[in-house]
Specification:
The complex is a heterodimer of chains A (408) and B (438). Chain A has two domains: 3-45 and 279-403, no CATH class; 65-256, no CATH class. In chain A, 50% of the residues lie in helices and 18% in strands. Chain A has helices spanning 3-11, 14-45, 69-85, 131-135, 168-174, 240-254, 269-276, 278-312, 314-322, 327-364, 371-397, and strands spanning 56-63, 89-95, 105-109, 120-127, 139-142, 151-153, 163-167, 184-186, 191-198, 217-224, 228-235, 258-259, 266-268. In chain A, strands 3, 4, 5, 6, 7, 8, 9 and 10 form an eight-stranded mixed beta sheet that branches. In chain A, helix 2 packs antiparallel against helix 8, helix 2 (14-45) crosses helix 10 (327-364) and helix 8 (278-312) runs parallel beside helix 11. In chain B, 51% of the residues lie in helices and 15% in strands. Chain B has helices at residues 2-15, 17-45, 81-90, 127-130, 143-147, 157-164, 215-220, 240-246, 261-280, 295-301, 307-337, 339-347, 352-383, 385-388, 391-394, 401-427, 431-437; strands at 56-61, 79-80, 95-106, 116-123, 135-138, 152-155, 173-176, 179-187, 211-214, 250-257, 290-294. The mean pLDDT of chain B is 91. Chain B is α+β, with helices and mostly antiparallel strands and 438 residues long. Chain B has two domains: 2-47 and 307-437, no CATH class; 63-257, no CATH class. In chain B, a hairpin with a 2-residue loop joins strand 7 (173-176) and strand 8. Chain B has 17 helices and eleven strands. Classes of the chains: A alpha+beta (408), B alpha+beta (438). At the A-B interface, helix 2, strand 12, helix 8 and helix 10 of A face helix 2, helix 8 and helix 11 of B.
Chain lengths: 408, 438
């Protein structure tokens, strides 16, 4: 192949060559990292919460006028009753928080009562015997809470349950060598027996800084006696919209000394998920937009510069054609030339991409760039270069030999 | 002569409309991406109280000891009730306040209206002058009312609008949960970005608070914090409210106003002494350890600027850089194509300086057009920030005259910067060579 003459010709266009290579390098560095960020964010977006989101809605209820704890217990019991009677409602329970809510309680959980060296941090969900069926959690060992185990807890009450249900991830951390059911763990100074293990339930937080224990949740058998609490409602399939629309009015009809915000007091999990992952989705959109436009601009830049070179070399091309070079020779000349520049660019870009990723890792707790992304970026940019150069190269191959005889 | 060069420039740019619009678009998009992300970044990273941010300080006290700081955790970012009250009592700062967020339900006097949730802060009298809260009517409560645990309240302009139709409501009462409060002041619309005095509980950019009331009164009512509370270990906490306020759980924010570096120094050693005293009293079993952060250091410590904002600003700047490299290449091609023309002009007596002026003028036109395109795209970008960033951040960024100026200026400067090398090459064209070759 005619690589040496191409290199010789490129030496006459040092600046242009360098600029294209530089542009390819920078584009590669940015696009690789942007793709990687997109992948990271999309992975987070698609993490399952472990609960049956499509059939769930949440009501944020607050009592007005600060009722006493005893009063709250009966108000709540009657609310749960009202909710159960609404057509389309399958099950309901009251709790402090739920997955994707970004608000909640976290405790250390461990093997000693003082908890000065906990095994891990765990999210605490208040639950009753209806929590598992409402949320659609899969019990993989042990049993559900019994109705007689369910206590009530007000502000600053003692959270020292004798029975708890944990997620399988947490069970494995606590007892790596065998079944956790029947064993004792400490979330307070008193021992709690693990009575059941559910397959999966994420903590309320989506923040990546808490990702280390994102699957470590504990359900404790209490009803909240606080003036603000959440009702999680499971609806029969297809009834979500209907129940969501009417549930607020029905609760107000039963008792109006309450606050359920007309704006976001009743939320489906589609809403909750959208809010929880707003910034992740936003980053994915922004990075995709930047990458796409960047590739277009780089492609267009290559078309522009190559077109100029073709225009400049029409006479030489004519001479070559007159001396016997085929159209194919001319075409492959420009394609090879672009490939050489492209290879130079992606080598530089690969190094830049890794450097940029290392810097981002240091600054933003990002993960290490997987080599696949650099490889995908390299292939994309080389193909982009070849695609971009095709039109000007075809125009070059159409230069007639007679061009050699024309002046100017 | 400049007018002539501008005319020449237009002719030249018109000759390759595709190449020209590619350059203009590249610069426009690059500048718009950078400016939009910059607008968000500036909105979330600004200094909320520039005139006294170095005088407002937040202490951290090592209440749990070195053992609690395993796994990269730091000292707690709030104080326990015990420590906050000790600092309040000893009163070593010029001004000082403890703060914690509270939620109540407001019960409108008109029984036909539904109760609604309100959020606010329990704090002390110094809060208002310390943080320069502007009043529409009345003012803050006094130290005597703090001491008397008085049921008084300062409400926001918004709550005043909802409850009293915006009238001067000083002296009237509002009902929060099961208590009445006398309104002593109505604030103007005031919600610093970030809401620096509460960044340890919130992201700092949420809706403004509805009210402020005396900390002493809120504690009397056993009002729960609506923010974070953190406990370490499980020993030694009695149940109930008394157990809660006596515990080593942290949930109270504390701010001190210290007028100068000497006062900061003195306060630092006071805190150190406080820790040593607790150590002697047998409460802390480790050497005293305390830190002081001024306002901006605290914003940094609490990572108030969302990482998304920084990453997107950086990648947008990288994007602009690629657009500029692209422009350098295209301008170089464009200018060198006119070597013959340059040769003729030089041969006819034009100096290098004339060539410089001519080509930079042409580049400036690309820059200005890029700026105009960039401005339009920045407008589109600002409108669609909500798609990409949290709505709390998105509503802070808007098109300001500064942003317009900055957009145009950066497009112009960037383009002229990009044109330097191509122009230098153009000015170095040897007239003789060009004339000969033709």
């Amino acid at each position: 192949m005619q690589i040496r003459p191409i290199l010789a010709a490129l030496r006459h266009h040092k600046a242009g060559t360098l600029l294209i290579a530089l542009q390819i390098a920078l584009t590669l560095a940015i696009v690789c990292n942007a793709l990687f960020i997109i992948h990271e964010r999309l992975t987070r977006l698609s993490q399952p919460s472990g609960i049956d989101e499509p059939n769930l809605l949440v009501i944020h209820n607050g009592w007005a006028g600060k009722p006493q704890e005893g009063e709250i217990a009966s108000l709540m019991a009657s609310d749960l009753d009202t909710l159960r009677k609404i057509p389309g409602v399958a099950d309901v329970y009251a709790t402090n928080t739920y997955p994707l809510n970004n608000v909640g309680i976290a405790y250390g959980i461990g093997h000693s009562p003082d908890k000065l060296k906990p095994v891990t941090t765990t999210a605490i969900y208040l639950a009753d015997e209806n929590a598992l069926p409402t949320l659609g959690l899969k019990l993989i060992a042990g049993r559900n809470f019994r109705p007689d185990e369910i206590g009530q807890i007000g502000l600053h009450g003692d959270t020292d349950p004798s029975a708890i249900i944990v997620t399988s991830a947490l069970a494995k951390l606590l007892f790596p060598d065998g079944s956790a059911v029947g064993k004792v763990a400490y979330i307070s100074a008193k021992p709690s027996t693990i009575v059941g293990v559910v397959e999966r339930m994420r903590t309320p937080w989506v923040d990546s800084s808490l990702a280390k224990w994102a699957d470590c949740s504990t359900l404790i058998p209490y009803r909240p006696l606080t003036s603000a609490s959440q009702y999680v409602v499971r609806v029969q399939p297809g009834q979500l919209e209907n129940v969501t629309r009417h549930v607020r009015a029905m609760l107000y009809a039963a008792n109006r000394m309450r606050v359920i915000s007309p704006k976001d007091g009743v939320q489906t999990f589609a809403d909750i998920r959208a809010i929880a992952y707003n910034s992740d989705r936003g980053m994915a959109i922004l990075m995709s937009a930047i990458s796409t436009i960047l590739l277009i601009i780089t492609g267009a830049g290559i078309v522009g510069l190559t077109s100029f070179w073709v225009g400049q070399r029409r006479k030489q091309i004519g001479v070559r054609r007159a001396l016997g070079a085929t159209r194919h020779d001319i075409l492959s000349y420009f394609l090879t030339e672009n490939l050489l520049i492209g290879v130079g660019g992606v080598v530089m870009g690969g190094v830049l991409a890794i450097a940029l990723n290392m810097w981002l890792m240091k600054q933003f707790e990002m993960d290490k760039l997987a080599p696949g992304y650099v490889l995908a970026g390299v292939v994309t940019l080389l193909l982009l270069g070849q695609g971009a150069v095709l039109a000007p190269a075809l125009r070059a191959s159409n230069v007639p030999p007679v061009e050699a005889t024309r002046s100017v | 002569m400049l007018a002539y060069y501008l005319r020449l420039g237009i002719r030249s740019l018109r000759r390759n409309p595709i190449l020209t619009s590619l350059m203009v678009l590249a610069i426009g998009i690059g500048v718009a991406a950078s400016m939009t992300t910059y607008a968000v970044f500036r909105a979330v990273s600004g200094n909320p109280l520039p005139d006294k941010s170095t005088q407002l300080l937040v202490p951290q006290i090592d209440i749990w000891g070195p053992q609690s700081r395993s796994e990269g955790r730091d000292m707690p970012d709030a104080l326990s009730y015990t420590d906050a009250m000790a600092l309040m009592r000893e009163h070593r700062a010029a001004r000082q306040t403890s703060i914690y967020p509270v939620n109540y339900t407001a019960i409108p006097p008109d029984a036909s209206r539904e109760p609604f949730s309100v959020s606010g802060y329990a704090t002390y009298t110094d809060f208002f002058p310390m943080f320069e809260a502007p009043f529409q009517y009345g003012g803050g409560w006094g130290a005597a009312q703090d001491a008397a645990h008085a049921a008084v309240v300062v409400i926001s302009a918004d709550l005043n609008q909802q409850l009293f139709g915006g009238a001067n409501s000083v002296g009237r009462t509002i009902r929060l949960d099961d208590h009445d409060y006398q309104v002593v002041g109505v604030l103007e619309n005031w919600n610093p970005h970030p809401r620096f005095y509460d960044v340890n509980n919130s992201d700092g950019f949420s809706d403004p608070p509805d009210f402020f009331l005396p900390f002493t009164h809120a504690v009397d009512l056993h009002t729960e914090t609506a923010g974070n509370s953190n406990c370490y270990g499980s020993s030694g906490r009695a149940p109930g409210w008394d157990g809660w306020v006596q515990s080593d759980c942290v949930w109270v924010s504390f701010w001190a106003e210290l007028p100068d570096a000497a006062a900061v120094q003195a306060y630092q050693s006071y805190l150190q002494g406080y820790g040593a005293e607790q150590n002697r009293a047998g409460r802390f079993h480790w050497p005293a350890n305390a830190k002081l952060h001024d306002l901006m250091q605290w914003m940094d410590y609490e990572k108030v600027v969302p990482p998304e904002s920084r990453i997107s600003l950086l990648l947008s700047l990288g994007f602009l850089l690629v657009c500029l490299v692209n422009t350098v290449g295209l301008l170089l091609a464009k200018f060198m194509r006119r070597s013959a023309e340059i040769g003729v002009r030089r041969a006819l007596g034009a100096s290098r300086r004339e060539i410089w002026t001519q080509f930079l003028a042409e580049a400036a036109m690309v820059g200005v057009s890029g700026g105009v395109v960039g401005l339009a795209l920045t407008g589109v970008g600002i409108l669609s920030i909500g798609l990409v960033f949290d709505p709390d951040y998105a509503r802070l960024a808007h098109m300001s005259p500064e942003l317009v100026g900055l957009t145009l200026l950066s497009a112009l400067v960037a383009t002229i910067g990009a044109a330097f090398y191509p122009t230098w090459r153009a000015a170095r064209v040897q007239p003789a060579w060009q004339l000969k070759s033709n």
